[in-house]
User: Fold this.
Amino acid sequence: MADASDRGPVDFRTEPATYKHWKLAFDGPVATLAMDVREDGGLRPGYELKLNSYDLGVDIELYDAVQRLRFEHPEVGAVVVTSGKERVFCAGANIRMLSQSAHGWKVNFCKFTNETRNAIEEATGESRQTWLCAVTGSCAGGGYELALATDWIIMADDGTTAVSLPEVPLLAVLPGTGGLTRLVDKRRVRRDRADFFCTTEEGVKGRRAVEWGLVDEVVPRSKLDEIVRQRAREFAARTDRPAGARGIPLTPLERTIAGDRVAYRHVACAIDRQRGLAEITVQAPSEVPPADLAGIHAQGSRFWPLALARELDDLILHLRTNEDEIGVWVFETAGSADLVEAYDKLLAAHRNDWLAREIRLYLKRTLKRLDVSSRSVFALIEPGSCFAGTLLELALAADRSYMLDGTRPGDARPPATLRLTELNFGAYPMVNGLTRLAARFLAEPARVDKLRARAGEDLDARAAAEAGLVTFTPDDIDWDDEVRLALEERAAFSPDALTGMEASLRFGGPETIESKIFARLSAWQNWIFQRPNAVGAKGALVVYGTGQRSDFDRRRA
Amino acid sequence: MADASDRGPVDFRTEPATYKHWKLAFDGPVATLAMDVREDGGLRPGYELKLNSYDLGVDIELYDAVQRLRFEHPEVGAVVVTSGKERVFCAGANIRMLSQSAHGWKVNFCKFTNETRNAIEEATGESRQTWLCAVTGSCAGGGYELALATDWIIMADDGTTAVSLPEVPLLAVLPGTGGLTRLVDKRRVRRDRADFFCTTEEGVKGRRAVEWGLVDEVVPRSKLDEIVRQRAREFAARTDRPAGARGIPLTPLERTIAGDRVAYRHVACAIDRQRGLAEITVQAPSEVPPADLAGIHAQGSRFWPLALARELDDLILHLRTNEDEIGVWVFETAGSADLVEAYDKLLAAHRNDWLAREIRLYLKRTLKRLDVSSRSVFALIEPGSCFAGTLLELALAADRSYMLDGTRPGDARPPATLRLTELNFGAYPMVNGLTRLAARFLAEPARVDKLRARAGEDLDARAAAEAGLVTFTPDDIDWDDEVRLALEERAAFSPDALTGMEASLRFGGPETIESKIFARLSAWQNWIFQRPNAVGAKGALVVYGTGQRSDFDRRRA
Assistant:
């Protein structure tokens, strides 16, 4: 079965010039992203990507397009998703690929595709780059889920075009990319209609699709292009993105993988296979930030916060997909907290600039990716570290943090400190809409306000512990044993139990569509992905397309 | 492996005189419920209930006690949960029982235990019967989760008493009875402390337990009884329950099971094994309600709404536990909508009476049980039916409803109608806190207000469809085929996929602690209950107590 190890690592880095499956076109403020999947272009051998079905490789390109549209095209205010095939919009995730995949691969694939669809919604909501969708031909399963991630779905009224979520009746699994949640929570389709829709292979077309809220308009095929163009221009006209600005090219991300070390410019990762952990060190910027906005734009993808976001993002994806036996990620930082704070201040000062906004949102998405990763996250805070502002979020995202109280004999560096900046108080909400500080202090919301007054202050171990920002503060006598034991113990627990526990403890408080997708929907889907009715020898996912019939165990659990 | 079929049906009916595992004592406004599990009193053979560990049988008695305390003891304003054993509070769910059980049994067991703990919280919040907990000795796993369901936890400070959730480190499963959710969402324990706590076998005791919010107070063993008595009296003093009222005995529930028919006084169920469905018919009351409160009290458990709640509750539990291959529940009603409405009006008029409140809350809990049942629920609305008010909730709880438009040839009865009553607008919230009407009209909240003005009106099929209250309204020509096909199709789908789909579509909108328990927590737990690391030949749940070590697959999914 396909998994991370058997065919070399997956690389998430790509660029439009090498896309196999998507075509990007630009017409002033409107971009069009056409899905045109190459049947023989699967990431792994063993399946053909027929009918615009997709695998991880297709979705990696989609993810790249979402990113580049935001950074490289400030002039774009609307993005139309459409199909490059004549008779099909998209058949969803490739079934053969899914049925061949190991459990972990399925789960990781769904997580990544979900994150990309969430990013599409964020582009609409926060980057003011509104996504819409023009549906012609069959739009099934993951195809419709992609449409659901856009803010306006226009469907051809041609007697054959239909939207559907046929997973339950055809494959005995759930629509795994947010479909069920978006039906009832985003589009607020009446639950009994959603029930009917999700059990109807052929889906719904025409007027009923609009009446039920499954799409926003149906139009004759002959008028489709014109109306899509018109809507796209209307949406684009509402943007606050600067039509005349120059985009920031996302230059190729430099990365070296040598043995068990992954290195970028500001982020390095050392994998300890025996201990089952990855030690991730984030370097502070090495120089003062540019003086003004023009300087940020001039630095472009070299600007430290943007470079950091890209490197951390790539590393998280790499570790998730290619290093699934490394269960514990240990974050450390090194460098000047003053410089980290200076960059935070610059981002905060220019928060209304389109690029500064994009950089903040990218950091936000990357930190969210960390929160929903099925890995234990620890932070080690030691002399020489710089857990300030944006980098402090890494410690706040951690399941647990250890901060050395004092110094070590022979180490002349001052004791470690933490520093809050303005960006800890709203810039980086989690999937549940809360800042990590608010999530931490659910019991005492007033603490967050008090901490706000202390932004900029250096908090040593005692102050950080009193402020509730760290878990434990051993001194140098206890540190080695305490930290070593905690890491060893963590690596020895059941990976599955940890995943369920972490997913439950990380998201106290309110829920959003995103948090519901990663909780209720994904957890149920993961369960179903383990059930014989789906993945057993006669499971629906396995026999699909073979002409064999599934023979379900009829017991309800 | 233990499942529903191999040892005869489970009976949920019990009464204090036959309890094996709990001792109920009364002291004016304070009741004490002592857990004193009989080691040899397991519901199934093959395990011993050591250290106050529990199985479904123990929890059935707890459930019964929760019910009777509310109905039979209006004078009780506080309930103390304590242990009848000297050195242990409760070791949680019995591990050997769990490891012997089939997957479905585990899942169903956890669901029932969760519902009972939710009912304990509802008793505190809505019946004004405050539960508190006196912890002496080890209080581990499900033991601590029981404590967490109470509103005040007092722990002995004696050097050995501790609370713990050792499931992850010991058993590679999650605390399955709400523990993780209640830690971060109810008690708002800081997530990193919760992380540490949930991975620490020995748990936390003394001051730290209070500082971290795991318990509310620790007191010397010598003062424990006195302080518990004092707190209980304080809580009891705040109740609005009438100290001088007479309780309502919950008389033995009459039920006959003959072949595939289960019959109560007002509820009947016919099981069609071939089609995999249960046809459940609820009868309207046969006579006018009593004229006043005194009449309700005089009728006691014969009062139709209370009898209905008890019968429906028992039937749902019976079908869930003993008929797991019956995947579709079809609800029908018969009788006079006028009489149903009259009873609803009576309950609404006396909403502040303790008994009327209890009856409404019992109906609320029963309907919630229906919502979280892993069965497809259909409602068939035909001539002669009485889907009014409380009974209309059954149709609103259904995944789908069919209402016959018009009459059938040869049937002189008038066409079916629906009728809203005041009780549809707030009496019966779902686990997510929404009424079923509000959940139905998430997209158009104003519709609910408009419908309120139409309470009491008879809505025929066309009006009901226009109002959005039913899914489909076939006429007599289409009815048979449409309904038959829908039921056949439903019964043919994968039970697992349906369970995940229904759990996802039923609960749009906000989330509460309860809804999070049934979504995030239970879904993850169900997943883990399928994973080899927990239940494989060398899974932690299987080898526990054998001296063998688990050999985990280290891949994170």
